[in-house]
Specification:
CATH architecture of the largest domain: Distorted Sandwich
Number of helices: 3
Number of domains: 2
Radius of gyration: 18 Å
Order of helices and strands: HHHEEEEEEEEEEEEEE
Shape: elongated
CATH superfamily of the largest domain: Glucose Permease (Domain IIA)
CATH class of the largest domain: Mainly Beta
Oligomer: single chain
Strand content: 25-35%
Number of strands: 14
Structural class: alpha+beta
Length: 232
């Protein structure tokens, strides 16, 4: 448990004044407003509103990330812990046949929730499937869960896929990138608030270097060696 708290504190270490994702400004601002009102009105809910404001800040903060100076690697698209590395069929939405090398990352509530491009590539598909109330938050493969699928094409034609799985609360994944965009490695794609699961798919030519249980930092931690073409 001590290790867990140490990890949380490391995530929130000074300076605390980190940028907030534009979408989070609404939530953090609302929390601050309610906190101030409750203090001025001497409500007993001031501590509750302050706690919600801190939670919103944690979930929507957006610190700068610096990708490593390498041209043949793929980086983590999300913060979190690698829970699974295996071979799995490509999601049907991605239009690929056969199996892919898959890395599953599970973000935690105190992780940064901004998604980033794992490779320099053209974004050919950005499809969002809205979630339904009543989905099983603990079963990430539940058919009613919110899901977002992104397909990225490398300069040599290979495909890298990202599948973001939500949970019980719908409308949690918001994309800023659009199909047709040419992405730089580490470029923000949007955010997946309140946790979820991020699945990264590579062709069989990729050499996975991430390890199960490893902590990922989006836009900074290498996960695979690809020998990426410099076309993008």
């Amino acid at each position: 448990m001590a290790v867990e708290w140490e990890s949380i504190l490391q995530q929130l270490k000074l300076p605390l004044a980190r940028p907030v994702h534009p979408r989070g400004v609404i939530w953090v601002g609302a929390g601050l407003l309610l906190t101030v009102i409750s203090i001025l009105a001497a409500w007993h809910t001031a501590a509750l509103f302050l706690g919600l404001t801190v939670l919103f800040y944690i979930c929507f903060r957006d610190p700068a990330r610096v990708p490593p100076q390498a041209h043949d690697i793929a980086l983590a698209p999300a913060d979190g812990i690698v829970t699974q590395i295996d071979r799995a069929p490509w999601p049907a939405d991605m239009g690929q046949e056969g199996e892919a090398e898959r890395i599953v990352i599970r973000p935690r509530f105190y992780d940064v929730h901004v998604l980033r491009a794992p490779v320099p590539a053209a974004l050919t598909l950005a499809q969002h499937i809205a979630g339904q109330w009543g989905s099983d938050v603990f079963t990430k493969s539940a058919p009613g869960n919110e899901r977002t699928v992104l397909v990225l094409k490398l300069g040599d034609g290979r495909t890298v896929g990202i599948e973001v799985i939500g949970g019980a609360v719908p409308e949690r994944v918001r994309l800023s990138a659009r199909a047709g965009d040419v992405l730089a490695i580490g470029q923000p794609l949007g955010y997946a608030a309140w946790g979820g699961e991020v699945r990264l798919y590579f062709s069989s030519t990729a050499e996975i270097i991430a390890q199960r249980g490893q902590r990922m930092v989006a836009g900074e931690t290498p996960v695979a060696a690809l020998q990426i073409s410099s076309a993008f």
